[in-house]
Amino acid sequence: MMGRTIFIDPGRCIGCQACVSACRECDSHRGKSMIHLDYTDEGHSVASLPTVCMHCEDPVAPCAEVCPADAILVTADGVVQQADTTRCIGCANCVNACPFGVPKIDLGAKLQMKCNLCYDRTAYGLAPMCATVCPTGALFYGTVEELQAERPGVQVADTFTFGRSEVRTGVAMVVPADRVRWPVPGGLPVVEINGKDVRR
Amino acid sequence: MPADRWRADQDGETLVPTHCCFCGVQCGMYLRVDRGGKVFGVEPRNHDINRMRLCPKGINAYQQVNHPDRLTAPLMRRSRDEDFREVSWDEALDFTVSEIRRIQQSHGNDAFGLLGGASLFSEKTYLVGKFARVALKSRHVDYNGRLCMVSAAGANKLAFGIDRAGNPFSDILLTDCLLIAGSNVGECFPVMTQYVWGARDRGAILIVVDPRETAIARTADIHVALRPGTDSAFFNSVLHVVVEEGLTDEAYLAAHATGWEEVKAKAAEYPPARAAEICGVPAEQIVQVARAFARAPKAMAWHARGIEHHSQGVENCLSVINLCTATGHLGRPGAGYGTLTGQGNGQGGREHGQKADLLPGGRSIMNEEHRRQICGIWGIEESELPPAGTSMMEMVWQMQRREIRGLIGICNNPFVSLPNYAVVKEGYDATEFHAQLDFFLSETAANAHVVLPVTTWAEDEGVMANAEARVVKHNKAQDPPPGVRTDTWVMCELARRLGAGDKFAFPDSRAVFDELRIASAGTVNDYYGITYERLEETGGIVWPCPSTDHPGTPRLFEDGRTYHPDGKIHLQVVEWHSPMDPYDDEHPMSLTTGRTVAHFLSGNQTRRLGALVEQTPRPWAEIHPSHGFRNGEPVRVVTRRGSEVFPALVTEAIRPDTVFVPYHWPVPTAANALTIDALDPRSKIPEYKVCACRIEHAEKIDEVPAPPVAPGHVAYPETQVSRTDPLPPTSPQGRGTSERG
Lengths: 200, 741
Known about the structure:
By secondary structure, chain A is of the alpha+beta class. Chain A has helices at residues 18-25, 62-66, 93-97, 119-122, 129-133, 144-150; strands spanning 5-8, 36-39, 48-51, 56-58, 104-106, 111-113, 139-142, 155-162, 165-175, 192-193, 196-197. The relative contact order of chain A is 0.23. In chain B, 27% of the residues lie in helices and 16% in strands. In chain B, 61% of the residues are buried. Chains A and B meet through helix 1, strand 2, strand 5 and helix 5 of A and strand 3, helix 1, helix 6 and helix 7 of B.
């Protein structure tokens, strides 16, 4: 299946934002964090999860597919790079195409920025900065076998459905054992619409 | 592999191995130092304690080192009506010494006090104690660890004769049942969660006792959301069930404990129905906890300020010890107890004599033999060694009464950290002379006559002991800025000017540590076998370590013996009593305080770091939806000490009868302007975790002064997102607010 990649485990996230700070410390984003921390069940619990680039495999990176300037490159090992600064025109097509809401645009610089799986670290065998520091292992970098060796019985999902579309990703989500496909990324269902808890 | 990759290490960067300056986990980290010798970043370090992990405070800690707010010249004024002016070190020290002499000649030696801190290296905490007794010749010395975990220390000393956790962190991975009481591990000790999840991966049952559904409680098998201030009633009742169901380890009790019959008789007075009434939890939960803990082959209990910050803090900790002992869960891999220390050196900071009643090596200042030993090492007459002093809060009361007229503070910020701010302010304002050593101008330093700029942890070397009692070495990563001195230099220089220079001829930390090792030799807190060289070769050594070939003692009581002369566990009867601030119709709810993940203690350090300020810019009042407030709405929290307005964070993750406010901020949003200065009679720890309050609608949220951040501070504005329009924040601070937008 998948090689060495990031696994996101929302059950372990404590919302500490160490990943956010660590991402900022990584050399490749010039002091800016490329991670969102989302709160999924606000008002009811402290549940949270980090959102990093999912590095879509199939279809190959919607963000790259829609880029009119061919600025977003996908490496042979499946890492979707952030926009090439010499090509990006800051049009935000990638932002609109991404089903996970990941890319950011630096409006001043007219430049798209996003997680590139710490290519400058992973190319040298190091883990991405966020997964290195994550105090709880909510972000884990390795193979699925390494993950399962550390967490017996854990299941992961790398396919997400959006309406009739299905996206298979390079980054995977740890999911409860009995539910491997979820309607939205993050492994959690929509819980609130117009302030009402729709689970009840 | 890209051939043209820019490599930091080719650019002259060096990595200095050291540890985080913040909490008692003491994560290993590298500080990145540039070619010019300046700290400019952090890199994770694969140390035994944290295995590369860091929390947001740890990642951002390096930004303090060259922060533009650093104090770089002594500040002085002759009265509080004047502004500070920058002066030379000679002028500042001469004025300090002349004020010490003036006050002591007029009012006696004990009219001058010293307050240390548990974020100092152990060498410096040793010097604080020695400086007070030998140079100042005053009985009045204490430290801010008094606000941290002295309740656990007192309980451990009473029961086991030793003041430290019984087990290393790694034992958590081996346990079958993990009980966490009063500890918001996810926010206060984030890196510890990897041990908690590791235990869960092995199938361990997780029990969390906390009035709030914290990140750890959210995933617990049993979350006991008890009413603040009822912990010992709960644990007595758990013990009651353990006894009733025949789950005690009678053989262990008979062989290793004294006082069991009395403890058992007291537990009999707490059937689950009664405790359920007191604690506001279902009686069945008490039964569940008892069965889960007692039936587990190996069970552990870890606790923190949630049960320690009480007027019955020592009893609360003793009630946990009673449970561990009665079930035989002690002294084995995966079975035992521990306390998570809030400050970096919360453990080591009290071992070598800066506590009012302690001499180096954990010796008692009341014990004739101990006094004689230390006087021999210090080269003073026994008659010269002052008796025990009073605790930190009591010293403030003495300042109010003008019994203490002069004070030096090192590494503490009582204006934010002590309860009942009005009393603290009055006490400090009443002093005739007040000096502070700090590297930022804290709220307390702003009250001083003299402020002496000292080094950060990255500019000196020394040791700290983490929550496991593991001694680790911090290394120097850069030279201090011009004008800044080490605390060691300041104390030695003051001592010299006070005429005690021969007792303080320490050129550096290593020289202090070598005297500390000798002063601790033969005591329970034995550091003699720990040397800087050994610490640099290992991941740290756990005391007691009596000889240089001794491996240290990560786990206590493996041979079944405690540190009491009879080798037994001295069980203590625990009786629950209600909190000191009584509830009435006007104050029917509990105010409880605590930390948030982005900030550390009084916030003097973390409130200046851009990323952490952005993450959590201000405090809030966490309340249950049943009170009818909307998220973000102004809510006034009223106690008998005063009232303050906070934005409401409405969540089901808290008891309806409880309000939570984090305490890292000064007035006008200081939780400690509202808390009560009631103390535990034995440990003298303040009752931060419960006082009576009510909540009211408020017109508007009080204006909060901008955080004390200098222009050009290290801040990283978030990149704008163009996917959607920015969403209005739905809650008042980082928690509950999406990073997007």
